């Protein structure tokens, strides 16, 4: 039910009329020569306002499709990007370590070189050197040597007391002094080397202490950020970032150990707690990473990779402990509520640049679909179980045990349609299904759900067709695998079947399906339907659903008409009541018949009158459906007569030709049908034309026997009068007390017909 590509009747939009791939659609916009103003001028100069509006809609949809395609492309290659970024980050760390080692080696070589140069410049024999050495050892420590000893002692104290900030300041001070001493040569090589080695050792010791501190379960958020920040200042950023994420993961695992899934009944509480815990931890980790490391690509990539792993682990837990069992049993509401809670917490991370929703959608979608399909099957089974004992009487939905005031009860009843018990169950379950799926619009399950709703309604319509006595489906029920339903014996029950289908297809199901789309402002289920809603505000997929639902209602209506037509045409023993013999036998007797419509047409009129009376009470506000029902039933009988080859073979080619009396009776029957259909306002043009055609065919059959049919037929007014009198008599409204009997052909036809025993003279 996708919108599809934009099309226009104008030549300027011819390139949109074909179904193209997204790449082909975007090709024109990728060109370096693309000029938006020229494009719009070319496209829109010959378009009407409506076509321009459709073009705008098409371009907006194309923009959305392009953005979605780009997002899919990014996620398709994101793992490779993350892996490459991680390798680059590791390589940068190794380069930093290598640089530190090379710097240390250079310092050692520099010190050794200075020492060798000093020894080569010294004068005197070896004994003099020994004397100098002895004198050097006997000398008291210089001021810088005393400072060095005190500096190292201070560092050790600061590290022992875990005074990180002061230790970092002391290390920075020592590095500055060492740098100045090396540049100014104010320290002896051995002293400088000792200072540098001491600084490196204390730096490494501080880094190890900080790393150990980040792994402590009891470390607070402030302490963690301080330790990671200090570790970064020591020049080990990659390690610091990894330890930051590791610490958050340890806290997450520790907090998750206290959570235990306690079954489906508590699945929502477990999902809420776990979801909040996981995504709050990810949010805090992202906040800490951004605050300490800013938006450096390497660290951002590591954060995304870590967040993806935590989200995948969370999704697997929810799938295993919460979704699997309800999805298999069709508990759609439990599944959708848990998924909605998870997605709600996950979507909050998008403000921090973490789009983790696709991970949850990929994991949860199969279980949503499984729950949806199982729920649809459960709807069919539950509806069939009630239909097996449904009395097919229309009632308001059950109020329930909740106490309601008289006013509120009356208001609620006035808003609810009257359905049979199985239709009420079907309506309730479908509305709940659409409401549950509609809460997960991001899953884009509308099309699949609409298809399921249509299939479920088709199954229910087939059950109601089986409930019609004498239907072909019912006759072949044994061994066919069809569901057993309770028969609708009376006409009231059978019309109730039609009311079920009509109300579901025309109002309840479209409004329930409208909940699948939040972009439109639909009526709530407890609001009365508005006629403007039907035609003006429904999107294309809703209109298509309405048409397909209506076709299923038409199937039930046609089955109803066919069943009642067959009841009239065929007797219980299988004989045909509407045969040619009822007209051919009239000319074989001595006396003229009593001019009155044939019994089968009297029964047709009586049946249509009863159905019209019942329908006027049931189809309040939907009188057009009742009119079409009466029209179709009448057409079914007359069309059967028109298409009955054996009937016309006996009339046209039989051994006994159709005589004047038979033709007159046939003409009277057809005029009777035309009159009561016209008065009931269900005489269609098609029915009127078919009747005229078969009357003409009967007249031609008489003319073929060399009898002038128009010379033996009374005037049209006679048929109209007799038919009108028959209608009054059949409805109990006739009053012939003042009508005098006259057997003359020119006498009042009304009087002749009212007598019911006199015939008019031949011409």
From TrEMBL:
<keyword id="KW-0268">Exocytosis</keyword>
<dbReference type="InterPro" id="IPR033961">
    <property type="entry name" value="Exo84"/>
</dbReference>
<dbReference type="InterPro" id="IPR042561">
    <property type="entry name" value="Exo84_C_1"/>
</dbReference>
<dbReference type="InterPro" id="IPR032403">
    <property type="entry name" value="Exo84_C"/>
</dbReference>
<feature type="region of interest" description="Disordered">
    <location>
        <begin position="519"/>
        <end position="544"/>
    </location>
</feature>
<comment type="similarity">
    <text>Belongs to the EXO84 family.</text>
</comment>
<dbReference type="InterPro" id="IPR016159">
    <property type="entry name" value="Cullin_repeat-like_dom_sf"/>
</dbReference>
<dbReference type="Pfam" id="PF16528">
    <property type="entry name" value="Exo84_C"/>
</dbReference>
<keyword id="KW-0813">Transport</keyword>
<protein>
    <submittedName>
        <fullName>Exocyst complex component EXO84A</fullName>
    </submittedName>
</protein>
<dbReference type="Pfam" id="PF08700">
    <property type="entry name" value="VPS51_Exo84_N"/>
</dbReference>
<dbReference type="GO" id="GO:0006887">
    <property type="term" value="P:exocytosis"/>
</dbReference>
<dbReference type="InterPro" id="IPR042560">
    <property type="entry name" value="Exo84_C_2"/>
</dbReference>
<feature type="compositionally biased region" description="Basic and acidic residues">
    <location>
        <begin position="524"/>
        <end position="544"/>
    </location>
</feature>
<feature type="domain" description="Exocyst component Exo84 C-terminal">
    <location>
        <begin position="146"/>
        <end position="356"/>
    </location>
</feature>
């Amino acid at each position: 039910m996708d919108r599809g590509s934009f099309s226009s009747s104008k030549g300027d939009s011819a390139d949109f009329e074909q179904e193209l791939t997204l790449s082909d659609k975007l090709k024109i916009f990728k060109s370096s020569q693309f000029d938006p103003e020229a494009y719009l001028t070319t496209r829109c100069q010959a378009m009407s306002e409506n076509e321009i509006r459709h073009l705008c809609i098409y371009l907006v949809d194309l923009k959305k499709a392009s953005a979605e395609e780009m997002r899919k492309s990014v996620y398709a290659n994101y793992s490779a990007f993350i892996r490459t970024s991680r390798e680059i980050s590791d390589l940068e760390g190794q380069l930093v370590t290598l640089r530190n080692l090379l710097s240390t080696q250079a310092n050692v070589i520099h010190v050794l070189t200075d020492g060798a140069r000093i020894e080569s410049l010294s004068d005197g024999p070896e004994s003099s050197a020994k004397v100098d050495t002895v004198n050097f050892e006997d000398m008291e420590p210089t001021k810088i040597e005393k400072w060095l000893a005190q500096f190292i002692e201070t560092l050790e104290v600061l590290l022992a007391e875990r005074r990180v900030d002061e230790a970092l300041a002391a290390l920075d001070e020592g590095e500055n002094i060492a740098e100045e001493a090396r540049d100014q040569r104010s320290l002896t090589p051995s002293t400088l080397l000792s200072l540098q080695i001491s600084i490196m050792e204390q730096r490494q010791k501080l880094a190890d202490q900080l790393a150990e501190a980040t792994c402590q379960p009891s470390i607070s958020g402030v302490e963690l950020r301080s330790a990671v920040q200090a570790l970064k200042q020591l020049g080990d950023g990659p390690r610091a970032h990894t330890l930051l994420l590791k610490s958050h993961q340890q806290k997450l695992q520790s907090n998750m150990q206290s959570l235990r899934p306690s079954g489906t009944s508590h699945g929502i509480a477990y999902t809420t707690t776990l979801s909040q815990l996981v995504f709050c931890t990810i949010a805090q980790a992202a906040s800490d990473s951004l605050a300490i490391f800013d938006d450096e690509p390497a660290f951002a990539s590591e954060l995304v990779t870590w967040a993806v792993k935590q989200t995948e682990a969370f999704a697997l837990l929810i799938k295993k402990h919460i979704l699997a069992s309800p999805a298999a049993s069709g508990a759609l509401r439990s599944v959708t509520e848990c998924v909605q809670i998870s997605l709600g917490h996950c979507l909050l991370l998008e403000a921090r640049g973490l789009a983790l929703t696709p991970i949850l959608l990929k994991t949860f979608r199969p279980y949503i679909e499984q729950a949806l399909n199982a729920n649809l099957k459960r709807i069919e089974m539950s509806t069939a179980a009630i239909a097996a004992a449904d009395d097919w009487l229309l009632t308001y939905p059950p109020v329930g045990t909740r106490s309601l005031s008289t006013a509120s009860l009356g208001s609620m009843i006035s808003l609810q349609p009257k359905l049979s018990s199985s239709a009420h169950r079907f309506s309730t379950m479908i509305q709940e299904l659409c409401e549950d799926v509609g809460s997960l619009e991001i899953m884009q399950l509308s099309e699949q759900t609409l298809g399921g709703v249509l299939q479920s309604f088709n199954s229910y319509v087939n059950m109601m067709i089986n409930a019609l006595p004498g239907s072909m489906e019912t006759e072949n029920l044994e061994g066919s695998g069809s569901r057993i339903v309770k028969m609708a014996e009376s006409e009231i029950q059978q019309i109730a079947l039609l009311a079920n289908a009509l109300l579901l297809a025309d109002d309840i199901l479209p409004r329930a399906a409208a909940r699948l789309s939040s972009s439109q402002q639909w009526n709530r289920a407890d609001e009365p339907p508005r006629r403007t809603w039907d035609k003006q505000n429904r999107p294309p997929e809703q209109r298509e659903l309405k048409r397909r639902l209506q076709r299923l209602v038409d199937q039930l209506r046609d089955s109803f008409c066919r069943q009642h037509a067959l009841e009239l045409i065929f007797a219980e023993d299988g004989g045909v009541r509407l045969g040619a013999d009822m007209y051919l036998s009239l000319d074989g007797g001595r006396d003229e018949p009593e001019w009155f419509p044939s019994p089968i047409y009297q029964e047709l009129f009586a049946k249509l009158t009863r159905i019209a009376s019942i329908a006027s009470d049931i189809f309040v506000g939907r009188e057009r459906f009742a009119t079409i029902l009466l029209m179709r039933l009448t057409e079914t009988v007359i069309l059967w007569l028109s298409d009955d080859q054996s009937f016309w073979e006996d009339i046209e080619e039989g051994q006994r030709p159709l005589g004047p009396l038979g033709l007159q009776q046939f003409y009277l029957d057809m005029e009777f049908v035309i009159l009561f259909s016209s008065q009931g306002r269900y005489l269609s043009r098609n029915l009127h034309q078919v009747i005229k055609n078969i009357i003409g065919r009967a007249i031609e059959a008489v003319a073929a026997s060399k009898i002038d049919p128009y010379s033996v037929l009374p005037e049209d007014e006679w048929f109209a009068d007799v038919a009108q009198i028959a209608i009054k008599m059949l409805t109990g409204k006739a009053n012939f007390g003042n009508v005098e009997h006259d057997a003359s052909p020119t006498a009042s036809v009304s009087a002749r017909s009212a007598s019911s025993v006199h015939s008019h003279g031949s011409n």
